[in-house]
Design goal:
Blueprint lengths: L2 H17 L15 E3 L5 E3 L4 E4 L2 E5 L2 E3 L5 E3 L5 E3 H16 L2 E8 L4 E10 L2 E4 H7 L3 E3 L10 H13 L12 H12 L1
Parallel strand pairs: 4-9
Antiparallel strand pairs: 1-8, 2-3, 3-4, 5-11, 6-7, 8-9, 9-10
Helix pairs in contact: 3-4
Length: 188
């Protein structure tokens, strides 16, 4: 990313942090209070933030994975699918940490359930979205008004970027929010 573009992005992000309150989750339907496990079998991962279990689509609230079909250069110098890297990291976390989730909302015409999940890592209980973002394999999701859906995820993303964690180590990492905003701008 060019230095001028990076400075504009940093200014935008910092301005957003200062000017934005945390947006409440969308309430298309009342959330369930039940906590559920992500099963170890019968799960189909669509992206690094979305999966299907028991015929129902689940999506991590406030998390945006790398977009499948975009590529980055890995540490071995090989072009690799960025979305597949995000997906593989989520699948590994689900397998190893056995997270539990709770529904936040149900959205869309073919409803997806937005969830928040926690995982036990050693003696700690950690938010799955924070793990994915802090490790550099996912990003803070933004709404159509270019505001972060959940501000703590943006902070975790900035820390991961500064530490060149995960996908941030790649000099050509395709940031999904820039791609999505570009597509949104092209539709207007």
């Amino acid at each position: 990313m060019a230095r001028a573009t990076r400075k504009r992005l940093i200014s935008f992000v910092l301005g957003t942090i200062i000017a934005t309150a945390i947006a409440p989750p969308p309430r298309a339907q009342a959330p369930s209070t039940a906590v559920f496990d992500i099963p170890q079998t019968g799960v189909s991962f669509s992206t690094g933030d979305t999966w299907t279990q028991n015929g129902q689509t689940m999506r991590l609230y406030g998390v945006q994975s790398c977009i499948r079909g975009t590529s980055f250069t890995n540490q071995a110098g090989v072009k690799t699918d960025c979305g597949e890297a995000s997906l593989a990291y989520l699948a590994a976390l689900v397998r190893d940490a056995r997270p539990q989730c709770a529904q936040v909302a149900q959205v869309g015409q073919q409803p997806a359930i937005l969830v928040v999940c926690s995982a036990h890592i050693g003696a700690a209980t950690l938010d799955l979205g924070t793990i994915l973002i802090a490790e550099g394999f996912a990003f803070a999701a933004f709404n159509n008004d270019a505001k972060p859906v959940y501000m703590p995820y943006l902070v975790a993303e900035l820390v991961a970027r500064n530490n060149k964690a995960g996908l941030w180590a790649a000099p050509d990492m395709p940031h999904p929010n820039l791609i999505l905003f570009g597509a949104l701008k092209g539709q207007k």
